[in-house]
């Protein structure tokens, strides 16, 4: 359903999110989907599916199959974000309700290895030459 694959990495910090459905969608009460309805029933969350909300503007294509979420600010670097569609808030034109959908993506370069995170990030500039050892 989503443009980006779940757990996609190296996602641009200023990327729009496109949600593509197999058929035209309507609200759960069988009305036309509006931008305000999208804002109430689809969420971008930071760090977890219940994390802090990321503000965005929304639009839906004329064929009612693609929703575009345009975050108001760039995503933070090296951060996981989640896109959540509320359970049964949308339905296909045939009346089939769409269950909760959750996908995630990671911004920045995929420089995580296990639990380790490397700093400075690969390609960083203006890195301090003063190093303090950890005790």
How does this structure look, described?
This protein is mainly beta and 135 residues long. It contains one helix and 13 strands, in the order βββαββββββββββ. The protein has a five-stranded mixed beta sheet. The longest helix is centred in the N-terminal third of the chain and has 7 residues, at 35-41.
Instruction: Report the mean per-residue pLDDT as an integer.
Output: 82
Uncertain segments are: none
Structural class: mainly beta
Kindly report the spatial arrangement of strands forming the biggest sheet: 1-11-8-4-5
Largest sheet: 5 strands, mixed
User: What share of residues are in beta strands?
Assistant: 35-45%
Rg over CA atoms, rounded to whole Å, is 18 Å
Separate helix tally: 1
* End-to-end separation: 48 Å
- Coarse morphology: elongated
- Kindly state the percentage of residues in helix: under 10%
- Secondary structure tally: strands: 13
Report the order of strands and helices: EEEHEEEEEEEEEE
């Amino acid at each position: 359903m989503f443009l980006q694959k779940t757990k996609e990495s190296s996602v641009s910090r200023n990327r729009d999110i496109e949600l593509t459905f197999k058929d035209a969608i309507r609200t759960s009460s069988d009305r036309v989907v509006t931008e305000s309805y999208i804002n109430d029933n689809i969420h971008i969350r930071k760090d977890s599916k219940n994390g802090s909300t990321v503000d965005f503007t929304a639009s839906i294509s004329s064929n009612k199959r693609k929703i575009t979420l345009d975050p108001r600010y760039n995503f933070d670097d090296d951060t996981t974000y989640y896109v959540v569609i509320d359970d049964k808030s949308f339905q296909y034109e045939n009346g089939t309700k769409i269950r909760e959908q959750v996908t995630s993506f990671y911004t920045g370069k995929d420089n995580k290895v296990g639990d380790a995170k490397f700093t400075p990030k690969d390609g960083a500039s203006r890195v301090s030459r003063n190093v303090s050892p950890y005790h």
